[in-house]
Amino acid sequence: MNDFIEKLYNKTISRDNVYAKALAHLLFREVIEDAHSKYNIPQEDIKKMCKDAVNRAALFLEIQKDPDLYKAFAIEAFDSAKWDEPQMTKELKERLEFYKEIAEDLKLKI
Fold first, then answer.
1. d(CA 67, CA 100)
2. For residue range 26-68, what is the model confidence (pLDDT) as tens digits?
C-alpha cells in the first residue's frame, strides 16, 4: 500500500465511531447533498440530518451484534414493501472494487 493511503487509512480508522460514520456516509451523505443543492436545505438542517444518520447507523451496528435483535430489525422493512429492489449500479460496483483493493492492501479478507 502506498504510504499516503496507509496514513490516510490509519488516521481514519483511529477516529471514534468510524464505522457508524462510514455507514451513514455511504447510505446518506451523498443523497442528502443532492437534496441540499436541489431544495436549498439550510446547512444547519443538513448537519442535524447527518448527526441523526450517524446515530441511527450506530444503533444498527449495535443491533447487528445480536442475532435476535438483528432478526427483529427486519420489521423496519414493513413500510418499504413497494420500494424497488436493490440494484448493484456501476457506481456501487466500483465502490465495492475500491473496498476490495483496500482490504487486499491491508491483508484483510472480505
1. 26
2. 998 888 888 888 899 999 999 999 999 999 999 999 999 999 9
Distance between CA atoms of residues 68 and 71, nearest Å: 5
Whether the Cβ atoms of residue 27 and residue 53 lie closer than 8 Å to each other: yes
- Which residues, 6+ apart, have CB-to-CB distance to 53 below 8 Å? 24, 27, 28, 29, 32
Task: Quickly count: other Cβ atoms within 10 Å of residue 100's Cβ.
Answer: 12
Question: Chain-centre distance of CA 1, in angstroms?
Answer: 23
Amino acid in position 33? E
Q: How far apart are CA 10 and CA 14, in angstroms?
A: 6
The pLDDT confidence band at residue 108, using thresholds 50, 70 and 90, is low
Amino acid 33: pLDDT: 85
CA distances 59 to 1, 56, 102, Å, are 32, 5, 26
